[in-house]
């Protein structure tokens, strides 16, 4: 279906939270600021709004969830504000961020207004709602071939959008007594914190008796809170409880300091996906160890140094090998990887690609980016 390409891009960006200090979604604020450089106007509708600092061509509408407004009232407000923006042609493209239900709700409006609808989704969660959204959107946009769980010819790989101005090497790393290993993310079994604790115990028995583990993140669901208790019990059983620090939730604007305090960061997943934490660590010039096969493209020829098999024994061996490298050799490699992350996964570059995709859809054209299937086949 052809679409008019009148004037510049006026984007409706719908997200769960807009807050530059957010623990989990500071990236939405970063993307908004960068998209504003690529668009005539950006209208953000967010369920929760916190601290914002955005250009003058950005307007923000909050749905009041941060003040305790009910889901029902927030949904009514969502429908009203989006209908006004889309049906009055104040926007000419719509991007839903990570929530398939947003795309499903917006589809009738975008169809009436003949405006393209895209969904950014980077997760393993193959839900009925995602299947439904996939049938209604004009394009799915994602970070890597294994970040979109539906084999769709309209799913395009754009890379991540890391704030590499904020995630940068520290001016000076603080000296620590013994190497500090870090892990981060929502404290849930999917993130695989048990191998980190088990590997720490093995590392302290053998190669690095003074090694410590620093874990950033917090539980969300009741089952997650029980999981944290299990992690602490595991550390007790292995005799490393005093070497494992649970630092809790770290605000988005403080995460660079967390990465900068580490000698090595562990990115561990039960299923591969190019999540942000490993990229953020590399952007801070912190060495990375991972079992996450999605990082093969990022690590390239250095995969043998940083990519390990999915067992705590292999993780311990990989950590020992990495920490045993000469510091200058290790950092030279990490600096090269950081340059690659800045180029391929920096927020400014992603904003350009997002705008290009939306503008192609406005013209009724196919975005000129590789699809999920094409990217997978090339690896």
Write a concise synopsis of the structure shown.
With about 375 residues, this protein is α/β, with parallel strands linked by helices. About 40% of the residues lie in helices and about 15% in strands. It folds into two domains: about 10-160 and about 345-379, Glycogen Phosphorylase B (Rossmann fold); about 180-345, Rossmann fold (3-Layer(aba) Sandwich), CATH 3.40.50.
Secondary structure blueprint with pairings:
Elements: E1 10-18, H1 26-38, E2 41-49, E3 58-62, H2 71-87, E4 93-97, H3 100-113, E5 117-120, H4 128-136, E6 139-142, E7 155-157, E8 180-184, H5 193-205, E9 212-216, H6 222-237, E10 244-248, H7 255-260, E11 264-267, H8 276-283, E12 288-290, H9 296-299, H10 303-306, H11 312-324, H12 327-345, H13 347-362, H14 372-378
Parallel strand pairs: 1-2, 1-4, 2-3, 4-5, 5-6, 6-7, 8-9, 8-11, 9-10, 11-12
Helix pairs in contact: 1-13, 2-3, 3-4, 5-11
